[in-house]
Amino acid sequence: MRAFREAVEANDLDAVEALLAEDVVFSSPVVFKPYPGKAITAAILRNVAQVFEDFRYDRELGGGDGRDHALVFTARVGDRALEGCDFIHLNEDGLIDRLTVMVRPMSGAQALAEAMGARFERIAEEARARSV
């Protein structure tokens, strides 16, 4: 998904949010329960953009119907390098209705979980403010 990739690479988080459907479901690489809704997804993405260092998309994969995409990336969290993939599904209107993130190795996932866990109250507050 070119628009999402370009917005993320430009750190244009307002443009990223504009690409999300109201009923988007975000599945985290470190939390079992998915997060439903645009407000919480946007808040998570805004915070992860601050946690990731040296973030870079390396390749893009597309599905046959044009609604499924995978963006492979590398980043660091502190001194931990990680590789990951954003799996994106688009609804009929071309908006992201499912975003699933996977990361490896375990040490990178643990560093990400710790960094994002420390921000969870801020993320929840931001999501509540955006929902109003």
From TrEMBL:
SUPFAM superfamilies given in the database record: NTF2-like
Source organism superkingdom: Bacteria
Span of domain SnoaL-like: 2-97
Name of the protein in question: SnoaL-like domain-containing protein
Species of provenance: Streptomyces mangrovisoli
InterPro entries to which the protein is assigned, alphabetical: NTF2-like_dom_sf (IPR032710), SnoaL-like (IPR037401)
Gene3D superfamilies linked to this entry: 3.10.450.50
